[in-house]
Amino acid sequence: MTDVVNGVPVRPTTEKSTAELVQQASEQLSRLVRDEITLAKVELAEKGKRAGIGAGLFGGAGALAMYGLGAAIATGIIALDLVLPLWLAALIVTVVLFAIAGVLALLGKKQISRAVPPEPSAAIESVKADVDEVKHAVKERGRA
To answer: Which UniProt keywords apply (predicted)?
Structure first.
């Protein structure tokens, strides 16, 4: 008995030639790969959307934190104003903020200088070692 798929008669697998079976397997593999790629695109689009929303929420939180920091600085100036003149309280807070900014800038510069050059030197050395090992194995096999 012959099966019919999409209006086309199909012979049972046991009656197909090897070439037909290989062609059928190739078509199925191609369809499987296309379907997997489509699924990956859909999944990445969904994850990208969620990541975008999350980044926006983090941005909003950062902006509010900056306003909070400004309010905390103003509170510090007002608190110092209780024991010092207002201008001196503002000057002290300003100097402290610039000192903290300077220390952070120096720490950041140190971290950046440690990251240069931006190449994965350990990975490059590992690949070179792998290539050398393969060359050595090929030479040894050629001698045998």
So the answer is: Membrane, Transmembrane, Transmembrane helix
Measured CA to CA, the distance from residue 69 to residue 75 in angstroms comes to 10
Q: Where are the alpha helices (H) located in the chain, listed in sequence order? A: 18-81, 86-115, 121-143
CA distance 58 to 82: 36
- DSSP reduced 3-state for 5: strand
Q: Where are the domains of the chain?
A: 19-119
| pLDDT higher than 60, residue 90 | yes
Residue 70's pLDDT band, with cuts at 50, 70 and 90, is: very high
- Is the C-alpha dihedral spanning 104, 106, 111, 116 positive or negative? positive
3-state DSSP assignment of residue 9: strand
